Each structure stands twice: as structure tokens, then as C-alpha cells.
Amino acid sequence: MSGIYVHVPFCHSKCFYCDFFSIANTTKLNDFVAAVEREYHARKIELNDDVSTIYFGGGTPSLLSPLLFTQLSGIFAHLNPEEFTIEVNPEDVDSEHVDTWLACRVNRISIGVQSLNNSELKAVNRRHDSQTALNAIKRLKEAGITNISADLIYGLPGQTEDSWKESLSKLIESGVQHISAYCLSFEEGTVLWQRRKQGIVKEASDETINNMYRTLCDYTANAGFNHYEISNFALDGFRSQHNSAYWDGTPYLGLGPGAHSLGCDGQRRYVPGDIKQYLQSPETAALVDEETETDRINDTIMISLRTAKGLDLEDLPEKARKCILANAQSTLHRGILRLECERIFIPEEHWLLSDAVIRDLFIL
Ligand code: SF4
Description:
The chain is an alpha/beta fold. The chain has helices at residues 29-43, 66-74, 95-103, 118-123, 130-142, 161-173, 191-197, 206-222, 241-247, 275-280, 293-304, 318-333, 354-361, and strands at 2-8, 51-58, 83-88, 108-114, 148-154, 178-183, 226-229, 232-234, 252-255, 260-262, 268-270, 287-288, 311-312, 338-340, 343-345.
């Protein structure tokens, strides 16, 4: 089993919180699609043939015209993935695009809703409003798409606990099968980071974030969603297969500038975020990630402990296992971490502390 990820590094405009690799310029889309095809043919040997998931992320894959989307997905026409996801922005969901996505075998849509409050959306430079997002979900459902995931952000400028409850309730009511909810982070170099520095926006307090997280867990649980990763909630049968495989260490091939890969040989690679260089020589753009064995184990600790399943100590070398257990003593004692049958995990109520807990477990 393996997956394919295509990073489409173009957006209509930059959201104020975003530090993903993408540019607000769409003049090179044709060249990009041709380059991905060249890169794929040069690198497909990094995977076995059994590709079970394809994921087009970004950036904004939904800004590709129907013609370009058909060309890009056509590169993988010989594969039969069980799950084919595309990330879309609400303003791009018109019937022509939806028909194209369906014709190209897309069977899962991940839509960037972020909030259902217009002033919160405006405060972070999102292009859509709340009604556009709800209409987009309705249109996707009417077109027969039965696996829809929506992204939300809590801790947005101007957001209150009440407006968060309202966004969550409306989104759950809209009938999506999966929710990814992220706590806003102020990343260096973003407009939001600059605005906080200038005192124009304020970060939400820990208490507010805690309350919003509890609301998130309660509302989604009451609606039947399963909290299977720190930021991800799914109705039965609707977990993201692509991301779950990534968390399990399944190989995947990441194409496009800014994409990361894990080959069948266990080697991690990445394509630098440089569009000009990528378009010139996509076949040789990927570089080997020079990870040590320790880096690899620490990556596994970080990824696994963000999931409900947690980290299976039996999968690790004896020395690493002992070191992790020694590092975990204090958090195990305080109940922030639990150990059951050689598996350590962070209980849901402590997931907000996961960054600090995970850092303490890292081996040197
Ligand atoms: S649309 Fe997505 S990738 Fe593009 S700037 Fe906004 S958050 Fe970033």
C-alpha cells in the first residue's frame, strides 16, 4: 500500500495566518502540470504499484481550471486508488468544477471553511463568506459527494467562545462527515505574526483556547464523530485514509515544490519550495532528507502521539524504548500520558499539551 501527494503551490491570495509553501500568482499553472507529469515518471520507482490513496493539496488545487485538473489527474489514470482527495476553497466550488472532479474519480473533498463568521474570515483574509461555504457544501452533497471533510480554526482574531460554538454547530448541521479543527498559530513571517507584533491583533488566552477545545470535543462527540487524531474528527467509516497511512509510516510519494515523501526504501525526500527551479528540472528536484536514526525515531514519537492509537513501543529498538520510558516517568505519573500493553498515548483531555509532552520524550 502507498499514497501519492501532489502539492499545488498556488493560491488566489495569501491568508494572513498561512505559512504553507504557496504563492499568490497563477501564471505558471500549465507549466506546473507538465512538470508534475515529468517528476512522477522519473520518481514512481520510489513506490510499489499498489497506490491506495491520492491527495491533491496545497496551496489551492481547486483553482486549477477543469481542463488543467483533468490533465493533472490524468497522470494517475492507470492507478485505482480507494480514496482520491482534493483540497478546495469554497469560492471555487461551482458546478463545472464539481462535475470535473467527479469525472476524474475524486471521491473525497476537503473544504477550507475555517469559520462560519464573516468578520473572523475577513480578519484573516479569507476570500469567501460563511454563506458561500455553506452553499459549497450543499452543492457538493447534491452532486453526490458523500465524503466531505471541512477545516475549521479556533483562536481566530475576534473569535469568541459563542461564535466558535455557532461555527461548529452550523458546520455539523451542514452534514459533513469529517472535521479537521486547528488551533490558530502565529507563524513567523506571516501577516498575522506581524500584526501581533504591532499590537493590532491579540492571541487568544490559554483559558479561551482550552474552553474552545473542550467545546470542540463535546460538540463533535455528541454528533457521533470519533476524535482519532489531535485535530481530526470523523464519523464511522470516514477517517482520512491518506493521512492515517501517513501517521502509520506507509510510504508515499510527494510531488511538486514543497512536497515531502517517504519511499519504499524508508528514505525521506523533499522537493524544495522553489517554483522556478522546479519547473526547470522537476525530475531531479527531490533531495534526500539526511535524517539520522534518532531523527527518525523522534519523528515517529511526534506523529504517533498525536493520534488516539499512540505509540507502539514494541516497534522500536530496545535502547530507544528504554529511553522513552525513562523520559516518560513524570508524565505517566501525572496521568498526562498512559501506558497500556506496550502502547503509550495521550488521553484526549490532555491533547492540547501534546507539544510539550512529546518534546520531553524525544531521545538524544
Ligand atoms: S488558501 Fe490555503 S494554502 Fe492558500 S494561503 Fe490560504 S491557507 Fe494558505
